[in-house]
Design a protein that fits this description.
By secondary structure, the chain is of the alpha+beta class. It has 13 helices and 20 strands.
């Protein structure tokens, strides 16, 4: 194996790029390895590098290692120490708690910049985008609302990658096949509901992402007996040593509409179709309720949350091989180590590919939260004793690994729907959507 220094020299001779490392955590005494993923799709000179991780490497590692871990160090795109806006919870609050971080004498305040749940959604979107681009074929279920009449706003398609509870979501539950049968009542649906960790083959063939990212049959006909599937991949972005800022301001109106102007009186004296419709919804009494006039905000109580400043953002992503090994995949009633290993390797390859796609897409989490790789991220992390070795691995290469893993699973006799199962909303679900849109059109308030 070529030493990391030599590989870095080769990298620089081809192209200057930011890189990150996935470290293979082993449970044996063997040296662990790190797989390098360049922060660029165009890193073609290393695509044929002889030490690139292969499918067989992953297949064996899933059975013997503890997992794969990715650690990234990021900074605001706007500059080190500049404000970024974390994810928010009830009433716009930030999630800040003390954590023990290497390099600090005591625990420091850390803000969650992107939660585990949000990261899972981003990984799922990355996979779905790659499916729709025609690059990979992963089983999933689609409910198509495009033919639904009476909608004021198009819904389009919702897949089990999009739905909050994945294959067990109420949207999938309340969807029907071409015969008008609710999905949970179809033979495929029944097999999924009766699945468990000891026999997850049916879910693997219809929605493997529901096994990888975690799911719970909590809304279906099983009631309290619904099966739970733990997350096998976990990722989180945390702002280290966070200080919370506040902000306040005024929305300036170029018309400088007076707050003393009476819009109700104006509407009585002047016919206006738009104001009449707005008044029916909001019952306005002052110009600010029509979004006219200068509107101060955040002035009472010392302002509102104005982002955080942090030393850096740490992203930690872990693919747990023990969690994958708890899932078993018998075929024709027989569970063999080789068959289950093939399915587990597919799930690991899906996670690896999702991470690679997500990183290469860049890090725009929300407004005023753009992150870029810190130059310190090019340092390799190796967990466990052994030689420091780096192996280049791009999204293109993870795609190859995934497709080879899928082929291996098919050869083992495991089910794999290359094309999605297509459903339509049931009559009740369709009515719920159309009525809800009608109600929302009459209101300016969000539902709980």
């Amino acid at each position: 194996m070529t030493p990391i220094k030599k590989i870095n020299e080769n990298i620089l001779s081809f192209k200057t790029t930011l890189t990150y490392t996935i470290s293979l955590l082993t449970v044996s005494e063997k040296p662990s390895r790190s797989f390098q993923l360049p922060f660029s799709r165009s890193f073609s000179p290393l695509d044929s590098y002889p030490e690139t991780m292969k499918y067989q490497d992953l297949l064996e590692s899933v059975q013997s290692a503890a997992g794969l871990r990715l650690r990234l160090r990021l900074q605001p795109m706007y500059g080190e120490g500049e404000l970024i806006f974390p994810s928010t919870v009830d009433k716009g609050a930030y999630l800040v708690s003390e954590r023990r971080i290497p390099g600090y004498e005591s625990a420091v305040d850390c803000a969650i910049i992107d939660s585990v749940q949000s990261q899972a959604n981003r990984f799922e979107k990355a996979l779905l985008d790659d499916i729709r681009a025609g690059n990979i074929e992963i089983p999933h279920v689609v409910t198509d609302f495009s033919g639904l009449s009476g909608l004021t706003k198009s819904v389009g398609e919702i897949t089990c990658f999009d739905a909050p509870h994945r294959i067990f979501d109420a949207i999938i539950r309340d969807s029907v096949d071409s015969d008008g049968t609710h999905f949970p009542l179809t033979e495929t649906g029944k097999a999924i509901i009766s699945s468990n960790a000891s026999n997850a083959t049916a879910i693997f063939g219809v929605s493997p992402a529901s096994l990888l990212f975690g799911s719970w049959d909590s809304t279906g006909i099983s009631g309290g007996l619904g099966e739970k599937y733990t997350r096998c991949v976990v990722s989180e972005l945390v702002g280290v040593n966070a200080l919370t800022a506040t902000r306040a301001g005024v929305r300036r109106d170029p018309l400088n509409a007076s707050k003393d102007a009476d819009p109700v009186k104006i509407l009585k004296e002047t016919k206006d179709e738009m104001w009449t419709e707005l008044n029916r919804k909001t019952k306005f009494t002052k110009p600010s309720q029509l979004n006219h006039g200068n509107v101060p905000w955040g002035g009472d109580g010392g302002g509102v949350h104005g982002g955080v400043t942090v030393d850096y953002v740490r992203q930690s992503t872990t693919i747990s091989f023990p969690a994958l090994r708890q899932l078993r995949f018998p075929v024709a009633g027989k569970d063999t180590p080789a068959t289950s290993a093939s399915a587990q390797a597919v799930l690991a390859a899906m996670a690896l590919h999702a991470v690679a796609l997500n990183v290469e897409a860049g890090c725009h989490l929300r407004s005023r939260c753009d992150l870029i790789m810190d130059e310190k991220s090019s340092a390799w992390e190796l967990l466990n004793a052994g030689n420091k070795e780096a192996i280049p691995l791009t999204a293109e290469q993870t795609r190859v690994i995934l497709n080879e893993a899928i082929a291996g699973a098919k050869a083992a006799g495991l089910p794999w729907n290359d094309q999605p199962i297509r459903l339509s909303p049931s009559a009740a679900l369709a009515k719920l959507v159309t009525v809800s849109q009608e109600q929302h059109a009459q209101s300016t308030e969000l539902e709980d």
